[in-house]
Amino acid sequence: MMVMVAVMTSCASSSKLSTMVKVTDDRSQFVALAEAIPDAILEIRYYGTYNFVGERIDGYEEPVALITRQAAECLRAVSDDVKAQGYRLKIYDAYRPQKGVDHFVRWAANIPDTLMKNYFYPDLDKSVLFDQEYIMAKSGHSRGSTVDLTLFDMATEKELDMGGTFDWFGPESHPDFCGNPETGEYTGDNSKSPAGRSITAEQFRNRMILRQAMLRHGFKPLDTEWWHFTLKDEPFPDTYFTFPVK
User: If we measure between CA atoms, which residue out of 213, 214, 219, 216 comes closest to residue 234?
Assistant: First the structure.
């Protein structure tokens, strides 16, 4: 079923705009990522409890990753690319139902709940998560063509060291932290880190291996998360899906 919803968003001037978006539970254009890319490793963080909330997220009924057919095709090309370099894809999240996004919003509004603070946002007061847009009422993941991932090193049989964990809230997660992602140059500039944290040249290079492979095959990056990519030509840019992950 498809419905149209008016979403109210505020800008810096505090004026409000009404944007019409489509909301649907139609899953016919989605595939299971494990079927599209059989050798991808799945660690669906929001199905388990090791995530910034500390519990299973609403709407994640099975530990699977779903994604649009178009995004799956491009991600398969990424997989072939990195396999030739000795890596496999490891997936943390793909399609995210609106129910899961709503769960994040409720959690962020509950300021006293800081169960996982030491693991994911030790340098931030939880009250700033909305203002700094770590938590938002809508997510590109709900449009079905966004994926959160890293690389698994087949030689060491471990995740490639990216110098920081998935879903770390802070500038240390930005692709330009300690380097220039456009040129791939490591600068070591950690001035944005409130706690003086840093990453090594090797860790920055590892982030760039993932980034460059994703960009080569039709994905665009996010400037605040090294693990987050969206298909440039996503098939449903104005549609938010609601069916559960299963």
Answer: 219
**Total H helices, total E strands in the chain:** 5, 13
Chain-centroid distance, C-alpha 131: 19
List residues bridging with 147 in a β-sheet: 229
Residue at 132: amino acid letter: Q
Q: Are 142 and 96 in contact (CB under 8 A)?
A: yes
| CA dist 101 → 134, 202, 212, 216 (Å) | 12, 34, 28, 29
Catalytic residue, chosen from 43, 61, 225, 234, is: 225
DSSP one-letter string for 59-76: TB-SS--EEEHHHHHHHH
Structure tokens at 149: 């991932």
Give the whole-number percent of the chain exceeding pLDDT 90: 91
CB 244 within 8 A of CB 99: yes
Between CA 50 and CA 72 the distance in angstroms is 26
225: annotated active-site residue:
yes
Question: Which residues, 6 or more positions from 212, have their beta carbon under 8 angstroms from its beta carbon?
Answer: 184
Summarize pLDDT for 19-50 with one digit per residue, the tens: 578 999 999 999 999 999 999 999 999 999 99
